[in-house]
From TrEMBL:
It comes from the Bacteria. InterPro entries: RHF-like (IPR036567), RHF/RaiA (IPR003489). This is Sigma-54 modulation protein. The lineage of its organism: Bacteria, Pseudomonadati, Bacteroidota, Cytophagia, Cytophagales. Pfam families: Ribosomal_S30AE (PF02482). Gene3D superfamilies: Ribosome hibernation promotion factor-like (3.30.160.100).
């Protein structure tokens, strides 16, 4: 499932070719953007990639997030068997650390 949304003037592009994105995750993405806005004044776009690698018990979830800001974008990725919301929080925290460093 892929979808694009405009939230507070920020283009959100979610690409999830093998995953149905739950409504709760969509709301969590918006809350994550609110958190990122505390650390940077301008976000132009947020691209989120959701994928599942493998099958059954060996399946691994992959979540990547690119935050488009003036200057170099920040990107982080998480691979785990956790829930999507847990992985999203981890990725957002990684991006916050990059924003704080000024990358």
């Amino acid at each position: 499932m892929n979808y694009t949304e405009n939230y507070r003037g920020i283009k959100i592009d979610v690409q999830a070719p093998q995953v149905d994105v739950p409504t709760g995750l969509q709301e969590q993405i918006r809350k994550s953007i609110d958190k990122l806005l505390r650390f940077t004044p301008v976000i132009n776009a947020v691209d989120i990639y959701l994928n599942v690698s493998g099958q059954g018990k060996t399946a691994e979830r992959i979540l990547g997030m690119r935050v488009g800001i003036p200057g170099p974008d920040v990107f982080s990725e998480e691979k785990a068997k956790d829930r999507w919301n847990t992985m999203l929080r981890s990725v957002v925290d990684k991006n916050v650390r990059q924003l704080q460093k000024g990358k």
